[in-house]
């Protein structure tokens, strides 16, 4: 009986593998059909779009479009020239030599600087003697001490 059960089990496993293979084939066929349907719809919609674009461009002439764009560009140039002409100051005797103006400005600045220098009060020189070690040497020694302490702490 056990031998018969094992034989049945093997037959059922073989049938199960055949059914699984069949299901896989059917699933593949279904996916291929769905893709085919999708491709057909996309192609049909692309055809509609091409027809719509053709209809939209039917009344357009490339030469007329070029002429229109040139007219627009010319009118924009005219508008810019008008704007430039309006925005420029009219010269009603306001013309001055820039070199003369710069020289006068430099002269005024120098006079102001000279006036400011006259009012400067310098501090008096201290009467005490200077320390024997310059401050920079003292600072350097303090820095070296701090570095040694830091190195000792780190190690």
Write out key terms for the chains shown.
mainly alpha; 79% helix; 0% strand; flat; cytoplasm; transport; membrane
Strand and helix order: HHHH
How many E-type strands? 0
Helix tally equals 4
Structural class comes to: mainly alpha
Sheet having the most strands:
none
First-residue to last-residue Cα separation: 83 Å
Q: How much strand content do the residues show?
A: under 5%
Principal-axes geometry comes out as flat
Parts with pLDDT < 50 across at least 5 consecutive residues: none
Could you explain the architecture of this structure?
- It is found in: Cytoplasm, Cytosol; Late endosome membrane.
- Residues 112-121 have a biased composition (Basic and acidic residues).
- It is a peripheral membrane protein.
- Helices cover 79% and strands 0% of the residues.
- By secondary structure, the protein is mostly helical.
- The radius of gyration is 49 Å and the shape is flat.
In brief, what are we looking at here?
The chain contains 4 helices and no strands. It is flat. The protein has helices spanning 2-57, 62-87, 98-118, 135-154.
What secondary-structure arrangement, pairings included, does this model have?
Blueprint: H1 2-57, H2 62-87, H3 98-118, H4 135-154
């Amino acid at each position: 009986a056990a031998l018969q059960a094992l034989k049945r089990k093997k037959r059922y496993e073989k049938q199960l593998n055949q059914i699984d293979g069949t299901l896989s084939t059917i699933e593949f066929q279904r996916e291929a059909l769905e893709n085919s349907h999708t491709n057909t719809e996309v192609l049909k919609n692309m055809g509609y779009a091409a027809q719509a674009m053709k209809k939209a461009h039917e009344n357009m002439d490339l030469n007329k479009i070029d002429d229109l764009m040139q007219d627009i560009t010319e009118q924009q140039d005219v508008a810019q020239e008008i704007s430039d002409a309006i925005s420029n100051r009219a010269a009603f005797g306001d013309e001055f030599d820039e070199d003369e103006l710069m020289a006068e400005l430099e002269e005024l600045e120098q006079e102001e600087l000279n006036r400011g220098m006259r009012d400067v009060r310098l501090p008096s020189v201290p009467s005490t003697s200077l320390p024997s070690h310059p401050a920079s040497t003292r600072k350097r020694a303090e820095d070296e001490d701090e570095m040694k302490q830091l190195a000792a702490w780190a190690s």
